[in-house]
Amino acid sequence: MPVTQKDLMIKPKDALLKGHFACAGCGSALAFRHAIGSVADKAVLVVPASCASVYQGSGKGVAFNVPTINTAFAASDAVASGISRALKKKGKDDLKVIVWGGDGSAADIGIATEIGACDRQENILHVMYSNNVYGNTGGQRSGDTMIGARTATTPKGNTTPRKMVPFIMMANNARYVATASAAFLEDFVEKFQKALSLEGFKFIQIDISCPPNWRADSAHSIEISRLGVQTGIWPLFEWDRETNTAVLSRPGKKYGDKANRKPISDWTSLQGRFRGITDKELIALEEDTERQWNFLRKFM
Amino acid sequence: MVVKQETKSMTGNDAASYAALFAKPEVIAAYPITPQTTIVENLSRFVDEGKLEAEFIIVESEHSALAACMGAAWSGVRTFTATSSQGLLYMSENVFWTGYGRLPIIMPVVNRCLAPGWNIWPDFQDSMAFRDAGWIQMYTKNNQEVFDTTLQAFKISESKDIALPSMPCLDGFVISHTTGQVDLPDPEDAFEFIGPYDDPIIELDVENPWAYGSMTGPDQYSKNRRDLMVAMERAKKKIVDVHKEFEERFGRSYGNGLVEPYGDDEADLTLVTLGTIGDEAHEAIDRLKVEGHSVNALRVRTFRPFPVEDIVEFAKKNHKLVVIDRAASFGHEGPLRIEVEAVLKRHNVDTSVSGKIMGLGGEDVPYSAIIDLAKKELKE
User: Fold this and answer.
1) Whose CB has fewer CB within 10 Å in chain A, the N or C terminal residue?
2) What is the dihedral angle through the alpha carbons of A60, A62, A68, A69, rounded to the nearest 10 degrees?
3) Percentage, residues of chain A above pLDDT 70
4) CB-CB: which of B55, B67, B93 is closest to A89?
5) Mutate which of A50, A71, A115 to disrupt the B interface (most B C-beta within 10 Å)?
6) Is A20:A57 a contact under the CB 8 Å cutoff?
7) Domains in chain A with CATH codes
8) What is the rounded (10 degree) CA torsion for A7, A11, A17, A22?
9) Below-70 pLDDT ranges, chain B
10) Distance from A269 to chain B by nearest Cα, in Å?
11) How large is the ipTM?
12) Residues of B in contact with A84 (CB under 8 A)
């Protein structure tokens, strides 16, 4: 069922209460509110070390209005596996076990754990919210950082291509893999709900803006995410194991064709992390973007 | 009245797996490592044969083995895993997370030394590294005690007033792969002893959502750790009580459950030990007695919580302690010796303490070596 803007406004439950600690313009908190809110009283969350371990708030004032287990950085998908199996044993498998973590855990330190859970076909959904950086440690390069980005550990610009985590999950036989963007929440929530309706290991990577680490104006948060899709930096697609086919999603469909894309500099120019990016780096970034599209096309 | 039991012949790892089978854990997660592997192989067979109705999670690492058990424990079910050596080190952040998070997971550690070089033989360097992780640690002397201790561990750890994980420790190969006599109770009698885990310490609840392990300020954090200290202190009594109850039902005991003395109450020399060296010491003491030497022993069965009172009482009646450690705190002494000395000093007991580190990396510690040590200590 397509999710409409109206649906987004009617949430069965307010999943993110007032008083959370997310930064102004945080795309992750926004995505959380709509996605987790849409599954009402059925969500059980597992949060690896990530911004979400901070923005959930602290002590008695925790703003996540669903059961939440915080875990070590690399432990979340294994903890979620244990929860899912225990719930099955208790006959409570109507509950949805969701890992909600950043790219540091999903692309780097936790990737073995994630692939392990995927390999076992654990009945969990991993949502990787992606700001391409170790956010709450102050903005260091992660495996998800794109070429040219200035981070705390790549002050002269990152030189290596982005790790393509959704493709890694496809290669490991996940049940369902999708990408999403905080600028297209209807699309995200639709994919989120679809994933939860399926049995097995599901994976969604959502591009979210991070104004402090991207050195961007928080007012541009959604605009930057939208440009990420419109410039082709962030392909929007979903892939289903049953069909082994990747389908471009409605809001990003036309950007499959390079001719329809806006120049990548429209997207980089709004972000301080790309200040000083050279033409050479920009070309390398474009080439890496194309590499991802070419990989994706093999499944289309 | 002591229940009927059947005498079987099995390895120490078999004994640990039977204790787990009888406890009926609902979730087991495990990863192979020598010399632990046969415990989880047995359990996977029990599950496949339908003897055990558990979710068995074949994980990709020890880090995930314990993490999966943690997830299950937060969901309110009985959980079990086992490991050794490098595996224990690999899961280390979760070992602390489990202890500090008060999750009642039972995880036998089949003691094996640490690399380099590659060596699969026993010493206690692995479990000793987790002395401060908030786990109950009990060191066993033979196959029977492995079964008994593992079964007792469920009852101790899952008590609401304790809520601590347990690590029954067994010497690799010396116990784990050596066949010995084990008296097995009827599975239902064993299960009845610990009871079902139907009123869990903690359980995820969507009706009443809470967040576990969120950011915690210094005040609450230090209160949590103080609570853990207090729970450890309470665990001493719980271990003694459960051990006594076990004795009444199954007819076996190991001292008071915390320490196990051997020989006369008072002697010229006392051997303080852990694990199978404690069993070997019996033979040494008997032979020394024939030669006219007065030597007794105190085997520390429970290392965490540390049985301070029992050690002090025993030391007061004796003259000289020699502590045999099967691990080293490099830059200091053996860990057991360090602790025994500290405890006596704190309680103004002037019984002298010396120590020797023996059996590292599987170095054999026969009774003859213990006799030589005792004779040397008696001369000094």
Assistant:
1) N
2) -70
3) 99
4) B55
5) A71
6) yes
7) 21-297 (3.40.50.970)
8) -30
9) none
10) 35
11) 0.97
12) 71
